[in-house]
Amino acid sequence: MSRITWVAVLTGLRWARRGKRLRKRGTRHTGRSLLTGLVLALGAWAARADLPCVAYEANSLPQSEGWEEHQYGGGADLELIDGTLVIDGWASIAISDFFHQDLTALPGPNQYLRVDWRLRVDQVQGFADPGMQIASPKGSVVLIYQINRVYSLSDNTWVGYFTPGDFHDYTFISSDMETYSLYIDRTLSYAGEFVGLNYPPNIEWGDYGQGAASVSTWDHVRFAVVAPGDVDGDGDIDFNDINPFVAALVSGTDSGLSPCALHAADVNQDGAADFGDINPFIDLLMK
Ligand SMILES: [Ca+2]
Ligand SMILES: [Ca+2]
Ligand SMILES: [Ca+2]
Ligand SMILES: [Ca+2]
User: Which end of the chain is more exposed for a tag (fewer CB within 10 A), N or C?
Assistant: First the structure.
């Protein structure tokens, strides 16, 4: 089916549901229903843009994709294997080798910063290593790993547990850069705060600690400032978002959209971009 047809189908679905409710109350809404259908169909012609997204998929070294490498103690051995980056700093606890990128955009109203990483912690010697840091003008969050758990330096506590030896998905979300939520394998694990020194906003990940040694394997690191419904990421929710929204629903990861855009299409924020997002999306569109 073409995208236009899908829009018509989706719109029909929504208005059929609403029509049922309205008919019960004896209200006639056919005019608005037709108008919305027409508007959505026209919107689908709009050019498709994509949400600004940094998506490091470990198909090449981070340094060649805009990440700045910081090395201490001679640096770690880096190896690319099947779309993953192995950071091997096992030789010495003096080694630290991490990747830095400035956060050029911070979340505004109705937006949040989302950082996703998929990581396997292979070996750890010492308190904790590797790590992920997210720094904001309000403070920073530093998450460091043991073989089966993750510690927040900023909150001074263990903030999540996982089965050792496997890859796990970590999601960090903050809407105000003062508080954050950490999800492990899509389950909320901890809600904490940015504390400590203020930094220019940035993200750093890798062999984070001197004083501890680690081997870690990273499948991806992605981040974006996301607003639910603003699927093309241009700062508003309008007809230009319809085409990428429908593409996200219909084709998901095969849509050609950035992985971050798929999060924006998850309008009701239940973890999936699907038909349940149609009604809330149209509500945002009609605002
Ligand atoms: Ca280290
Ligand atoms: Ca990968
Ligand atoms: Ca938009
Ligand atoms: Ca959803």
Answer: C
